[in-house]
Amino acid sequence: MTEFTYAASGVDIDAGERAVTLMKAAVERTNRPEVVGGLGGFAGLFALDTQKYRTPLLASSTDGVGTKIALARQLDRHDTVGIDLVAMVVDDLVACGAEPLFLQDYVACGKVVPERIAAIVTGIAAGCTQAGAALVGGETAEHGDLMEADEYDLAATAVGVVEADAVLGPERVRAGDVVVAMASSGFHSNGYSLVRRVVAAAGLDLSATPAGLDRPLGEELLEPTRIYAQDCLALVEAFGVDGVHAYAHITGGGLAGNTARVLPDGLEAVLDRGTWALPAAVRLMEEHGVPRAESERAFNCGVGMVAAVAPETADAVVARLDAAGVPAWVAGTVGPRTGDTAARLEGTYR
């Protein structure tokens, strides 16, 4: 009789255990005082300090990295996409004013290569450290029948907390508010299906440095997503909800599309392109066939987060962000709606 083993079927339990051993130290460095227990349990435990909050609301967010992973595979560089994963989740959380508390990840792969899985999760841990969130557990699933050996995909869910009377959003935005833009670190984790198609069709060399860039294209495209969570929380701490009214995380849908999500009925945000320069990598995509209107929908075009703030607070908000290493500027204003859209871009990029 033929004997069948799990390993021969494509699932290597020993490799999975070795991956956990390799990533354990990085995960433990994300611990917060509220974490109960350690890595390896069936569930992550987190003790919410009920004395710290008056009326706490839990917030949750789930996301992935998308097809940026295909570039990571192509370049055999796996230590940055985990940061992207965390950013996509926690920067959504902070948009409502929530402090990220903890995160759990899910890694699906064709074959568990311990060193590769450890590199991915070490990146996730690095992102959690930047965000101030504990990585309380996760799952690595080996799907040899569904995925090629070097294929993988990532997802994560994070939980945060915000006081009920401190939730940010459209209800707080007023006519006269100022829109402060925060610079992105690159394409972040959106638009990569389009980016990869342009790269392939134009025959662009990922190891070459195109005109206008100061590093190889592959490095530019794998630059991790900037994590804004702690800087956004610090602004609320400094200026309160009377000074900071809303955040919009600029992801799929572009700057105008995402800014519109935090505006109440009857108001619009007008954003001036002339207040910043279109990134060279976006111009490269446009040079190879992406129309401007499409790039402004698919890419963040240099802005990864915006804040709607009280006008008297705007200069101090910009100064605080700049001091924290997040380039920021006044990009527009909020006023009565004059057209069909809640947010629009006008002018010409510098």
Automatic annotation (TrEMBL):
Pfam families from the UniProt entry: AIRS, AIRS_C
Catalyzed reactions: 2-formamido-N(1)-(5-O-phospho-beta-D-ribosyl)acetamidine + ATP = 5-amino-1-(5-phospho-beta-D-ribosyl)imidazole + ADP + phosphate + H(+)
Q: Where found, per UniProt?
A: Cytoplasm
Question: What protein name applies here?
Answer: Phosphoribosylformylglycinamidine cyclo-ligase
Q: Is Cytoplasm set as a keyword in this record?
A: yes
Q: In which organism is this protein found? A: Blastococcus tunisiensis
Superkingdom is Bacteria
Q: Which gene encodes it?
A: purM
GO molecular function of the protein, one example?
Answer: phosphoribosylamine-glycine ligase activity
Please name the InterPro entries in this protein's record: PurM-like_C_dom, PurM-like_C_sf, PurM-like_N, PurM-like_N_sf, PurM_cligase
Q: For this chain's UniProt record, which GO biological process terms are given?
A: 'de novo' IMP biosynthetic process; adenine biosynthetic process
Q: What's the Enzyme Commission number for this chain?
A: 6.3.3.1
**UniProt domain PurM-like N-terminal: residue ranges:** 58-162
- Any keyword Methyltransferase? no
Instruction: Spell out the GO cellular component terms annotated for this protein, sorted alphabetically and separated by semicolons.
Output: cytosol
> Pathway it acts in?
Purine metabolism; IMP biosynthesis via de novo pathway; 5-amino-1-(5-phospho-D-ribosyl)imidazole from N(2)-formyl-N(1)-(5-phospho-D-ribosyl)glycinamide: step 2/2
The family classification in the record reads: Belongs to the AIR synthase family.
Domain named PurM-like C-terminal is located at 174-339
Q: Which UniProt keywords apply?
A: ATP-binding, Cytoplasm, Ligase, Nucleotide-binding, Purine biosynthesis
Q: Which HAMAP family match?
A: AIRS
